[in-house]
Amino acid sequence: xxxxxxxxxxxxxxxxxxxxxxxxxxxxxxxxxxxxxxxxxxxxxxxxxxxxxxxxxxxxxxxxxxxxxxxxxxxxxxxxxxxxxxxxxxxxxxxxxxxxxxxxxxxxxxxxxxxxxxxxxxxxxxxxxxxxxxxxxxxxxxxxxxxxxxxxxxxxxxxxxxxxxxxxxxxxxxxxxxxxxxxxxxxxxxxx
Length: 192
Fold this sequence. Notes:
The structure is a single chain. By secondary structure, the protein is mostly beta strands. The protein has one domain: C2 domain (Immunoglobulin-like, Sandwich). 4% of the residues lie in helices and 39% in strands. The chain has helices at 82-85, 113-116; strands at 19-30, 43-48, 55-57, 69-79, 90-97, 104-112, 133-138, 144-151, 170-173, 176-179, 186-187, 190-191. Strands 4-1-8-7 form a four-stranded antiparallel β-sheet, with no helix packed on it. It has a four-stranded antiparallel β-sheet with strand order 3-2-5-6. It has a two-stranded antiparallel sheet with strand order 9-10. The radius of gyration is 21 Å and the shape is globular. The chain starts with 18 loop residues before the first strand and ends with a strand. The relative contact order is 0.19.
């Protein structure tokens, strides 16, 4: 059997409409409603500002049940003029339980964009502090049930990433590149 995935209709913006992209880290949720009474909840999240323009999806947490952990960065696009024209523009996170036949809605969370996007330079640590936030998850019935942990950088982008934290085999010495011979790693008296 194939797993059903929600289909999203994409509306092509007018040629003059500029889109803005922001990054969001969906960290985890806790104490969600168990909508799968026979099997364990296998949850994923759909993130969007304007669903008709763009929505992003996390992977499925196979193990977490009603307290899933994703630790996933998703990118979401929306119309740039939305921030100026709609004070209630929000980042929405819909949580679903993956099923064999159909997806079951678990709950939704919402954060106003004006509360999280503050501007600044995304490469500057002072402008991009680590601020994890916890928001209430609301059931489709309108009742609160569970919490969602996420992080939206104030600039809309995470700090510039390095490809690797390890050092290259080449190092610069007085402006010239010099080949560096790497030492073998020794573990317990044996070469690795």
